[in-house]
Write a structure and sequence with these properties.
The protein has 298 residues and is an alpha/beta fold. It contains 14 helices and 8 strands. The protein has an 8-stranded parallel β-barrel, surrounded by 6 helices. α2 links the parallel β2 and β3.
């Protein structure tokens, strides 16, 4: 499976400048959210998306800024109590927030991710009770052309088993029938957040299940906020796989894992993109991949 790079705007200092650099590096996907950059990320991306209509874009729904919360209360799609939580899967709010993203982006999103839907939920049953009407709202948004598909972007829900691919697909089928629009999952994958990768190299787990279901997998935080570049030194990389650079070890492990289709990076310069492209273009053979995973699992 071919793995491609995408711009993730969560850590970008300048969203528009980073997007321009990504476009010049032939990156064809940008991921953002209404709460990034103090609520300004989508608007900052709008001119780039208008200038380059071939760029695909994903945004999110569920998390919101205080300013957007006030607007939602005024619009009658959130109660003040819901707004104070900073996160909501209320169907009316999701529909409203997704429509607002269209206004801010200047176009429909290719994917709208439910943003950390596990927030505030203690059990799978409790979460699914909120996910089904949320999926129904997103199916309605797809039918209206507000988005072309939807997904789930989670920080911990797929790592800790609160959600599974089978259950997400079942909920999507109930919400939208056999032609539902659940397309993608997004989750952190790195040598720190390793468990899905460790399972995948053994032919099981979330990533394999997603691949078998035809879902795209967006890997977020592959450098773990940059921390891994100080952990995986040249000496460590050489011990893991002779001749491999630290970036090749860190990004290559994620890129070579079964099921991963896109890796989100907050790269901001042509040099960063060139180095990252080179790192993911060298697949790590299965025996060496397992050796790296085993080394960081211990």
């Amino acid at each position: 499976m071919t793995v491609t790079l995408a711009l993730g705007t969560y850590r970008c200092r300048g969203v528009a400048e980073s997007a321009k650099a990504a476009v010049k590096a032939d990156v064809d996907w940008i991921d953002t959210a209404p709460n990034y950059q103090q609520g300004q990320a989508e608007r900052q991306l709008a001119p780039i998306l208008a200038a380059y209509p071939g760029i695909r874009v994903s945004t999110k729904a569920g998390v919101f800024t205080k300013a957007r919360a006030s607007e939602a209360v005024e619009a009658g799609v959130l109660t003040q109590e819901q707004a104070d939580r900073g996160h909501s899967l209320a169907p009316a709010f999701l529909s409203w927030q997704t429509a607002r993203s269209v206004e801010d982006l200047g176009r429909a999103a290719d994917i709208v991710f439910l943003h950390n839907p596990e927030t505030g939920h203690r059990t799978s049953k409790e979460l699914e009770q909120d996910l089904l009407p949320a999926f129904e709202a997103l199916e309605s948004s797809c039918a209206r052309g507000v988005t072309r598909g939807y997904g789930v972007a989670t920080w911990s829900g797929l790592h800790d088993g609160l959600m599974t691919i089978d259950r997400l697909l079942a909920l999507a089928h109930w919400a939208g029938g056999p032609r539902h629009h659940l397309r993608t999952i997004q989750l952190p994958l790195s040598l720190v957040q390793l468990s899905p990768l460790a399972e995948a190299v053994r032919g099981r787990g979330v990533l394999v299940d997603a691949h078998d279901a035809g879902l795209e997998v967006f890997a977020s935080a592959p450098l773990h906020g940059g921390e891994l570049m100080s952990i995986v030194t040249p000496d460590v990389a050489e011990q893991l796989v002779p001749g491999m650079t630290p970036l090749e070890a860190v990004l290559g492990t994620v890129a070579s894992s079964p099921g991963v289709t896109r890796i989100l990076l907050s790269a901001s310069t042509p040099e960063h993109w060139a180095n990252a492209t080179a790192a993911v273009s060298r697949p790590i053979p299965s025996p060496q991949l397992r050796r790296i995973v085993d080394a960081f699992s211990s």
